[in-house]
Specification:
- The chain has helices spanning about 125-130, 135-140, 180-190, 190-195, 225-230, 270-280, 330-350, 370-395, 410-415, and strands spanning about 20-25, 50, 55-60, 65, 70, 75-80, 85-90, 100-105, 120, 145-150, 160, 165-170, 170-175, 175-180, 200, 205, 255-260, 290-300, 305-320, 350-355, 360-365, 455, 460, 465-470.
- The chain is α/β, with parallel strands linked by helices.
- The strands form 8 sheets. It has a 5-stranded mixed sheet. The chain has a 5-stranded antiparallel sheet with strand order 18-19-17-20-21.
- The protein starts with about 20 loop residues before the first strand and ends in a 12-residue tail after the last strand.
Length: about 475
């Protein structure tokens, strides 16, 4: 199976649409493609060409082939180019060698939502030049506003199974015929050839519409994110300090992610061109891959409570450096872009921008408080007010458990009650606690004869001193 071409970071003006590009299917079922055969070579005059009996495939044949034999599937077709065909040879072909049996590979496992099976470009001519675009995994697969291409002299088989009944695209081109309306393409899908080329639980829906928002449109593949990532093999070891995961990507990367807040005057395609001509055209940034797209993010009040979904422009920068230098070149580019935002952001419709690098470094620049920021602040304040009102109403109606009462602390005025005396610092004089034996002589009843005639209210006068009776510890029985 052919692999995806090397990615070249090139962003040019997208003609005819805003935010849409061309996505081309890479694999094919061509007879002349050596990778479609188990021996890695096209069958020749001494070979038996065998197709799986139960396989379903439409094979494109562009030349005349001489074979020793040909075994065909129960359900299949040959799409013959002008002058193409087959002939059967009796005996060995001297130019082919001893010969043998060559099997056509199974193509049932090739999936629409495998990002490695697509290439992207800004125009049809760029595919011939090798000027391919880099995207995060979700956007490597055709988006809802993209033109889908299957090579002219080629056939294929693709499983279109997705998480939704339909897979929307702008247009589809098959064997040189372009379909930009769903009614025409639906007829093609019901043909015998169409059934062999497209299969699965979902169907392609040609909407024929372009993105009309100059700030860009979302790709629309988020519903199939898990399905896309199931076809991606991520690297288990990354050299950078803090790997990052861009929105719409399946793997952590060593690089830099920029988040740009924009106004209605922002133009995504124009900004892509600006980044290309000002930065990626420089020799020092030649190896950097850049992907810029509109993504949706949920805003959270206090970092916890989600209150609205907003759109941002995500710019992903990846470089080819490894080891200790991994991601450093993309970080340097992010800082240069941030300087440009500081100088020209207001003219470009950029309100603010920040970046996160895999080195752990961050940076930001604010060009002004936009309508989105003001709306976010207002909504946050309103949400807090509404929450507080609901909390009070619920408490008064007994819907919330009441808090236990705290003990009342004595007021300052009670400390001065019953006292007109003032101390040195202006406060009342502290008498300590009341002693009924000395401050209230009539608090205890008189007990005549206790401790002799010299006892007065429990106080005894002797030659050796003054003694008093403590009724709590006195052992005399008062009950007699």
């Amino acid at each position: 199976m052919p692999t995806a071409p090397a990615l070249v970071p090139l962003f040019l003006c997208v003609l005819g649409s805003v935010g849409g590009v061309y996505k081309q299917w890479i694999p094919d079922t061509n007879f002349e493609n050596a990778t479609n055969w188990d021996k890695g070579s096209v069958p020749c005059g001494s070979d038996q060409a065998v197709f799986p009996a139960q396989g379903k495939v439409a094979v494109y044949v562009g030349l005349v082939h001489t074979l020793a034999g040909l075994s065909l599937p129960v359900d299949g077709e040959f799409v013959l180019a002008p002058g193409a065909g087959f002939s059967i040879r009796v005996g060995q072909d001297p130019s082919c060698g001893a010969g043998g049996t060559t099997q056509f590979k199974d193509v049932e496992s090739l999936k629409w939502f495998d990002p490695d099976l697509w290439s992207a470009a800004s125009s049809v001519d760029d595919f011939q030049k090798g000027s391919y675009l880099f995207f995060v995994h979700e956007e490597s697969v055709p988006c809802q506003y993209d033109d889908v291409l299957f090579r002219d002299a080629s056939s294929f088989r693709v499983d279109v199974s997705g998480n939704t009944n339909t897979v929307p695209v702008k247009s589809v081109k098959v064997l040189g015929q372009r379909f930009d309306s769903n009614s025409e393409f639906s007829q093609y899908l019901t043909s015998s050839l169409g059934k062999l080329q497209f299969h699965g639980s979902s169907s392609i829906k040609v909407e024929g519409s372009s993105c009309t928002d100059v700030t860009g449109c979302e790709c629309g593949n988020s519903a199939n994110h898990e399905r896309i990532c199931a076809n991606v093999a991520c690297s288990q070891q990354l050299d950078c300090k803090k790997p990052l995961r861009p929105v719409g990507h399946c793997c952590d990367v060593c690089g830099t992610i920029m988040d740009i807040q924009f106004s209605g005057s922002f133009n995504l395609d124009s900004y892509r061109q600006r980044l290309q001509h000002l930065f990626l055209a420089l020799p020092k940034y030649k190896s950097v891959q850049l992907a810029a797209s509109k993504v949706s993010k949920t805003q959270k009040m206090l970092g916890i409570i989600p209150y609205q979904s907003t759109h941002e422009i995500q710019v992903v920068l990846l470089d080819q450096n490894t080891g200790s230098e991994a991601g450093m070149l993309s970080e340097a580019l992010a800082r240069d872009i941030l300087k440009d935002v500081h100088d020209q952001g207001a003219h470009l419709g950029i309100e603010s921008a920040d970046f996160r690098a895999s080195s752990g470094a961050t940076g930001s620049d604010v060009s002004g408080l936009g309508d989105g920021d003001v709306a976010g602040i207002v909504l946050g304040v309103l949400a807090l007010v509404v929450f507080s009102v609901l909390l009070v109403v619920a408490y008064r109606k007994g819907l919330l458990p009441r808090m236990p009462r705290l003990p009342r602390l004595p007021s300052f005025s009670s400390w001065k009650k019953d006292s007109g005396e003032v101390g040195e610092l202006g406060g009342p004089i502290d008498h300590g606690f009341d002693n009924p034996m000395f401050e209230k002589p009539h608090a205890l009843p008189e007990i005549s004869g206790l401790y002799g005639a010299e006892s007065l209210n429990g106080i005894t006068l002797t030659h050796s001193g003054v003694h008093f009776v403590n009724p709590v510890y006195d052992e005399t029985d008062f009950s007699a």
